[in-house]
Amino acid sequence: MKTNTFELAKQMYMNKLRQFVPVVDRVHGKHHPEFHEVRRLFEIIETKVSENDLNLSDVFNSIKDVTKNYFVPTDVCESYEVVYQMLSALNKAYDGLKR
User: Fold this and answer.
1) For labeling, which of 11, 20, 86, 96 is most exposed (least CB within 10 Å)?
2) Taking CA 41 as the corner, what is the angle to CA 40 and CA 43, rounded to the nearest 5 degrees?
């Protein structure tokens, strides 16, 4: 049952994240260099998920550290906020898998 929650989250968010993360990085990376690290960490998640390696705890913990627990800066666009919302939802679904 819990696996289904993470599987559903992957289906809902991974393709959108693949599209949004590079764009947000290009648009906001100059003023928010921490997003370069978010992109790098997302690419690790993407690789691990494609290889069915669900050892993602360290990566999600790193993203939470870099983003200050998915805190959205006030000077960014909606896409930036949506990326953090999707990453957070994916993180929560993953945490549910580990319980």
Assistant:
1) 11
2) 65
- Residue 17: strand, helix, or coil: helix
For residues 46 and 18, the answer to whether their CB atoms sit within 8 Å is yes
CB within 8 A of 32, min separation 6: which ones?
73, 76, 80
Determine whether 37 is exposed, middle or buried from the number of CB atoms within 10 Å of its CB (0-12, 13-18, 19+). middle
Closest Cα partner for 33 from 62, 74, 67, 71?
Answer: 67
Give per-residue pLDDT as tens, 8-60.
999 999 999 999 999 999 999 999 999 999 999 999 999 999 999 999 999 99
Provide the residue ranges of all domains of the chain, joining segments of one domain with +.
2-98
Which string of DSSP letters, residue by residue, matches 41-64? HHHHHHHHHHTT----HHHHHHHH
* 68 φ/ψ sector (left φ>0, alpha ψ -120 to 50, else beta): left
